[in-house]
Specification:
Layout (H helix, E strand, L loop, with lengths): L1 H18 L3 E5 L5 E4 L1 H7 L18 E5 L7 E11 L5 E9 L1 H50 L8 H31 L8 E4 H11 L1 H6 L3 E5 L6 E4 L1 H17 L6 E11 L2 E10 L21 H7 L5 H11 L3 E6 L6 E8 L1
Parallel strand pairs: 7-9
Antiparallel strand pairs: 1-2, 1-5, 3-4, 4-5, 6-8, 9-10, 10-12, 11-12
Length: about 350
């Protein structure tokens, strides 16, 4: 009964070794191959028994080896070695070989695809940056000359001419804003860090950036409100980035708020994850953002829908730029819906 069990066990083991997808090789102390299963001989592309194994057999960590089977493409295998005892107390090396060729080729393809994608991204960034610079130069000249004409530095202009010049100036400023956003998006996506973190006074920054839109707000009969009673006097962050973020959010709020509406700016310290952070909130009572679009509006070239572009203009770049810039400071931005036609709220939290 025991002999039959041993015979079945021996037969099963033999089949397991023969059918194993990994190569199995038995190598003696002199480096000659005593046994090799079909998977091992398929890896080497030739019979192995009686030949020199050809690789160091060292017990320990797995190593990768390159195989050159005759008349076939090179292969890569993972080699592992264990010591076993044979009859007459002779020891030998049991070598297992796992074919890694497909995995290595796939990793190489992924690496090349990643390199190609990175090169394409660099080329895109270079092109957009160059294009923005080239377009801004003549546009600044148009804006500057239009201002000279409106200031009557080059002679008198009548009322109709003045109205046309104001339209030119407004259109030029909107285009310049788009180009600036495009350039900021390229810089934010790049590896260049222009955050310039330093200690600065927060309250004057808030007042100055709200004052920038005061004339536009007056023309639309929009009330500007500011609440910095609880805001810290000084913060350690990037004054440049926070200024860019404030400009974009305030201009957006102004653009999407109806005449007679209100735009509010507030700032206060916030305890989050046992750290003190700065919360800046810009809110309005304009057209608002639908709940389903609260996340999508932060994607480049995205707006609520096509009707927004027709009504309010713009490429939908501003919020994408803001999210990347705020992310560079280690913070986050979130949009909130205040109800249908009740406006929207943008909340920024950054470490200070």
């Amino acid at each position: 009964m025991r002999a039959k069990a041993d015979m079945i066990s021996s037969s099963v083991c033999s089949k397991l070794i023969e059918k194993n997808a990994d190569g199995i090789v038995l190598v003696n102390q002199r480096g000659s191959v005593l046994f090799a299963n079909p998977a091992a001989e398929a890896l080497f592309g030739l019979p192995l028994v009686g030949r020199e194994f050809g690789f160091p057999v060292v017990v320990g960590e797995a190593t990768e080896v390159d195989l050159l089977p005759p008349g076939q493409a090179p292969r890569v295998a993972e080699l592992r070695v264990a010591t076993i005892s044979l009859e007459k107390q002779e020891s030998a090396f049991l070598v297992s070989l796992r074919d890694l060729t497909e995995r290595v080729e796939m990793e190489g393809q992924l690496r090349r695809a990643m390199e190609d994608a990175q090169e394409a991204a660099r080329a895109k960034s270079h092109f957009l940056s160059h294009l923005s610079h080239e377009l801004r130069t003549p546009l600044n000249a148009v804006i500057g000359l239009t201002n000279l004409l409106l200031d009557k530095c080059l002679g008198p202009v009548n009322e109709d001419q003045e109205n046309l010049l104001r339209d030119v100036l407004q259109g030029g400023r909107e285009l310049l804003h788009i180009f600036n956003n495009l350039l900021e998006l390229v810089n934010a996506e790049g590896s260049r860090d222009e955050s310039h973190v330093a200690l600065f006074e927060l309250r004057p920054l808030l007042i100055n950036h709200l004052a920038k839109i005061q004339d536009q707000a007056r023309k639309k009969n929009i009330t500007l409100c500011i609440d910095f009673e609880k805001a810290p006097e000084c913060v350690l962050s990037s004054e440049q980035i926070i200024g860019l973020v404030l400009d974009e959010l305030l201009l957006n709020a102004l653009k999407f708020t109806r005449p007679g509406g209100e735009v509010r700016l507030s700032a206060r310290p916030l305890e989050e994850d046992s750290n003190t952070k700065l919360e800046i909130v810009v809110s309005d009572n304009g057209v608002g953002v639908q709940q389903k679009n609260l996340e999508r509006i932060f994607e480049p070239f995205s707006q609520e829908d096509s009707s927004y572009h027709r009504t309010f203009g713009g490429l939908g770049l501003g919020l994408a730029v803001i999210r990347k810039l705020v992310g560079k400071l280690g913070g986050w931005i979130r949009a909130e819906n205040l109800g249908q036609n009740n406006g929207s709220l943008f909340r920024i939290v950054i470490p200070i």
